[in-house]
Amino acid sequence: LLECEQIKGDESFADFLVRNFLRHYEGNRAPFVVQLDYDFLNPIYPQHVTEIRESVYRLLSFPDVYVVSMKDALEWVRHPTNLSDLADFPYWECGNNAAPTACQDPNCCQFDTGTNC
């Protein structure tokens, strides 16, 4: 993503992601994949995390958009399901898992921005 030449002028990264998402959303609605790598998430670029967060909030304002893992996206591609039935989509188990508990001995990484690691 650091080498991306498709960002136009002074367009923010968040605007770039949303613009590309809209091409999928308003087109054939194929899953929109964002793959983040180490160089992009490097702590010397803290604005990247802020812009990713902003773009995710904007995408989630669409009533039929989900942010899921690659595994979950593939399960939906294998088992297409109507939006009205996603709450019971067995491959995602939405809302059926117990709340996670805090890890007593966390394994922290340098990309962690929200915990006290």
Summary, kept brief:
The chain has helices at residues 13-25, 38-41, 46-59, 70-78.
Task: Write up what this structure looks like.
The structure is a single chain. The protein starts with 12 loop residues before the first helix and ends in a 39-residue tail after the last helix. The protein has helices spanning 13-25, 38-41, 46-59, 70-78. The chain has 117 residues and is mostly helical. Helix 1 packs parallel to helix 3.
- Strand portion, in percent? under 5%
In N-to-C order, the SSE pattern is HHHH
Rg: 17 Å
* Major sheet attributes: none
| Basic shape | flat
Task: Return the structural class.
Answer: mainly alpha
Query: Which stretches of 5+ consecutive residues score pLDDT under 50?
Result: none
Compute the average pLDDT.
78
Number of helices: 4
Name the helicity range. 25-40%
- End-to-end Cα distance, whole Å, is 27 Å
Structure summary, number of beta strands: 0
Key phrases:
4 helices, 117 residues, flat
Helix/strand layout:
Layout: H1 13-25, H2 38-41, H3 46-59, H4 70-78
Helix pairs in contact: 1-3
